[in-house]
Amino acid sequence: MSDTILKAEGLTKEFRGFVAVKDVNLAIRRGSIHGLIGPNGAGKTTCFNLLTKFLIPTRGTITYDGRDITSLKPAEVARLGLVRSFQISAVFPHLTVLENVKLALQRQRGGSFDFWRSDSVLREYDTRARELLADVALTEYERVQAGQLPYGRKRALEIATTLALDPVMMLLDEPTAGMTHEDVDRIVALVKRVSAGRTVLLVEHNLKVVEGLCDEITVLARGEVLAQGNYATVSRNPDVQAAYLGTDPASVGAPTATGEAAHG
Ligand SMILES: Nc1ncnc2c1ncn2[C@@H]1O[C@H](COP(=O)(O)OP(=O)(O)OP(=O)(O)O)[C@@H](O)[C@H]1O
After folding, report:
1. Which residue from 84, 85, 207, 228 has the fewest beta carbons nearer than 10 Å?
2. What is the residue extent of each domain of the chain?
């Protein structure tokens, strides 16, 4: 088994001539938590959408677990274990927290909305759903309608419904965006916990989160890879510091200066 689980080579995305992602090479190590960071407009979201197959690259290839997935669809790669949060895991606001997770489990098992399952299978969903809720510290919320959850807890529920798909690799798009400090700490601990035995790729603006979570970081700027390495290495890199300071200094902090960049 190769050490690299997800690889991008020469990944490029043009929007009517504008190059949003340019010749990006990425190698994500199996079992690692990998952060994708960069100033506003760096191409993080575009790159994330390419890797999760929500966008088709103009050029380049993506290999997952030794298999070329460049031309596969999001649902196809999800079946291979490469799952993006909020993909199939949209949270239904009028269903309870527990019902949302059970529904995600049901879909994972291939049954769309079949209500013909035997009682024993349904009970199995119950048990597994409660385990997942315990994993994300939502046990006490199981009967609450998802729409009534506080924001941070809603993101935790989204992670639970993603976990219901039993991902080998999870891709999280700004898991802490818009959160209070307390919620950020909780999500960081949660991602750390659920990353055991998995690979995680996350796009994140909050550099404190990246520092605390990521084994490896790729910094993008103007669509290109500017630096890669652990937090200590990339935050000391003068090109990285210049890229952060070179954007809007009022809204984006240098990694070493403030620990947190503004959300664009
Ligand atoms: N569908 C699109 N059509 C045209 N241009 C696009 C499209 N999507 C993204 N872009 C452009 O590509 C560049 C990179 O955008 P992207 O959203 O990937 O950056 P980002 O690093 O995620 O930014 P942010 O931190 O602000 O979320 C931006 O200049 C953006 O305007």
Report:
1. 228
2. 1-88+169-264, 92-164
> Rounded CA gap, 65 and 2, in Å?
8
Q: What is the ipTM for the molecules in this complex?
A: 0.95
Query: Distance from the CA of 226 to the center of ligand 1, in angstroms?
Result: 17
CATH 3.40.50.300 is the classification of domain 1-88+169-264: yes
Taking the C-alpha atoms of residue 235 and residue 8, their distance in angstroms, rounded to an integer, is 23
User: What whole-number distance in Å separates Cα of residue 137 and Cα of residue 187?
Assistant: 10
| Grouped pLDDT means (10 residues each) for the chain, 264 residues | 93 96 97 95 94 95 96 91 73 91 79 58 84 92 94 88 90 86 86 92 90 95 95 92 65 44 41
Is 52 in contact with 63 (CB distance < 8 Å)?
Answer: no
157 lines ligand 1 (CB under 6 A): no
pTM of the predicted protein model: 0.85
Cβ of residue 42 lying under 6 Å from some atom of ligand 1: yes
DSSP string, 203-233: E-S-HHHHHHH-SEEEEEETTEEEEEE-HHH
